[in-house]
Design goal:
There is one protein chain. With 502 residues, the chain is an alpha/beta fold. The radius of gyration is 22 Å and the shape is globular. The chain is 31% helix and 19% strand. A hairpin with a 5-residue loop joins strand 9 and strand 10. The protein has 14 helices and 21 strands. It folds into 3 domains: 280 residues, FAD/NAD(P)-binding domain; 104 residues, Succinate dehydrogenase/fumarate reductase flavoprotein, catalytic domain (Flavocytochrome C3, Chain A, domain 1); 94 residues, Up-down Bundle (Methane Monooxygenase Hydroxylase, Chain G, domain 1). Strands 8-9-10-1-20 form a 5-stranded mixed sheet, covered by helices on one side. Strands 7-3-2-11-18 form a 5-stranded parallel sheet, with helices on one face.
Length: 502
Amino acid sequence: MIARIEEWLEAPLVVVGAGAAGLSAALASRGAMVLADTAPGEGGSSPLAQGGMAATVAADDSTADHVADTMNAGAGLVEAEVAAAVCGAGAETVAWLAAQGVHFDRAGDGSLHLHREAAHGRARIVHARDHTGQEIVRALAAAVAAREDIDLWVGVEVVALHMDGGRVAGVIARRADGGHIGITAPAVLVATGGYAHLWARTTAPAQAVGGGLALAMRAGATVADLEMVQFHPTALDVGGDPRPLLTEALRGAGGLLVDGEGTRFMVGRHPDAELAPRDVVARGVYAQLQSGARAALDLRHLGDHLAAEFPGVVATARAHGLDACRDPLPVTSVAHYCMGGVAAGPDGATTVPGLWVAGEVASTGLHGANRLASNSLLEAVVMGRRAAAAIDATRGVSATAPTRPSQVDAPACVRPADLAEIRTVLWNHVGVVRDGAGLRLAGHRLGAIAARYPGAPPNEVLVARQVVRFALARPESRGAHFRSDHPEPDAVWARRRVEVVR
């Protein structure tokens, strides 16, 4: 689709996305223009993060223990150096967020109140009741608004990265009125989130369809581990799109997964039962439902603690006619978080000069094949700030003014019926449990959808097809990627898959 560029602007840095990663990057920069399709807190995944942020702040905890838990959960694909850098920044990141105005829950003595979540060896989750992501975005957005050198533009969608001489030199964006503008900048940081809304059952918001990932792929950036999509085991099974999330901290607080008779079905599946790594619990819930049995989260025994610590969960259940204090809540496994994304170094740099990424759109190697619960908010803030610092260090490197074309060839917008079909295909054939036959069928059906668009296919089509390609190319089961035709891990494939999509 050829579109005319109506005007060109300049910015010292363009940040695409206004979640935890993008806002943190803007605050850590020496001036930026932040572009977002919705206002901070009104869209994206960051405000939906309930449980909290993992951080080593307790006296009996250590960075080494946090790294060990991260690597154990990641099933052999975690980059140890990245884990050490991100986990090691936990305490400082909590202090920085508090300085920005984030109100974390505290105990009576003033110390941080900590939750425990699955696969963590101890309680290390700092939180703001059960709406931590919302509180972080609120505070960061207020801090951004107070900065005169940061411009926040809401209601714009970046449709292409502006390339000049083999490097990213800005963006092309579509305004709410349909007009297109160009913005030149010496660096662009993409922090647009993941692609988990491409599955029919998901906790991810409608914006999470891989737009930022597609921007980077079209610019020639290397991507990694796109098959590694994490399924959350406890979404409230009441329909809805997205489905309401029941935070993993509920199980950390003692919540139990039970069948219709009240029997715990995770006992015997893993030594840690409900606190097993997320992929194990997600498959347990999925198997339970596939067999025709019931899966529910029993919180009744938590008593007054439930309403005090998890008021949002109690309210969500009540809104759907359920009483979390009296009845087990029906749950289902759903697509939740993407470990794969744009391959990035320890400072967020990609393989394309001028392009940086942070947050869920990036694949830094921190999460491996299975994200450790609540590491994502930590990574978003740490990597957003690290990327901004690295970008500032490179300012002034390019002395030549970039070109300013008068038009752009933007990808087509996906038709609603085609998006619905993509989401059904991925849920049915690239879901909690996969196999080669289903993946090949998915590839065929997605190819037929792509053929309906004569030019550049929509971002959703591009991303979905690459996810299938990556899943077919890993003939083993590892972490969140479980193939029933290859149910065991294979040492030959114990490495991250990194490639450039042509």
